[in-house]
Amino acid sequence: MAKPSETTPESGPGGGTLRDSLPKKKPDPLPLLHVAGQFALAPERLLVIGDSDNDASAARSAGCPVVCVPYGYRGGRDVRELDCDAIVTDLMEACSLINNLDYLASAL
Fold first, then answer.
1. Is the peptide bond before 27 cis (omega within 30 degrees of 0)?
2. CA quadruple 44, 45, 50, 55: dihedral, nearest 10
3. Are 79 and 56 contacting, i.e. CB atoms less than 8 angstroms apart?
4. Fold observed for domain 4-107
5. Mapped to the 3 state alphabet, what secondary structure does the chain carry?
6. Do 54 and 27 contact (CB within 8 A), yes or no?
7. Of 46, 79, 41, 71, whose CA–CA distance to 61 is shortest?
8. Which of these, 40, 47, 30, 60, lies nearest to 95 by C-alpha position?
9. pLDDT per position as a tens digit, 4-39
10. What is the mean pLDDT of residues 60-72?
11. Using CA atoms, how far apart are residues 34 and 21, in angstroms rounded to an integer?
12. pLDDT, the chain, mean
């Protein structure tokens, strides 16, 4: 993992991709496909947690599952209007959902 002093405008802590380091931004799927590629994951294995139509649209276009939270930027839209697989009240609930999905997948 990169130290904060080793980060550049193109990489965040740990070498992660920063928002403006790619030629396209959400709702284009490129940022999500880039992240999936960096972790050698198929897009359907990359869970997107978002708060906006841009997040949900990018996830759908990339083939990623998407969970939305009811806070953040949505341009006045109700979170229930977004094309997402689930709505969670906070990130702790998202963790519980992920743990339950992992448990269910391992039982199959």
1. yes
2. -30
3. no
4. Rossmann fold (3.40.50)
5. CCCHHHCCCCECHHHCECCCCCCCCCCCCHHHHHHHHHCCCCHHHCCEEECCHHHHHHHHHHCCCEEECCCCCCCCCCHHHCCCCEECCCHHHHHHHHHHHHHHHHHC
6. yes
7. 46
8. 47
9. 444 444 455 455 556 678 999 999 999 999 999 999
10. 95
11. 11
12. 83
Residue 77 structure tokens: 């839209």
**Would you state the pLDDT for residue 85?**
93
Counted residue by residue, the chain has a size of 108
Exposure string for 30-69, b = 16+ CB within 10 A, e = fewer: ebbbebbeeeeeebeebbbbbbbbbbbbbbbbbebbbbbb
- Distance (Å, whole) CA 19 – CA 21: 6
Determine the residue type at 88: V
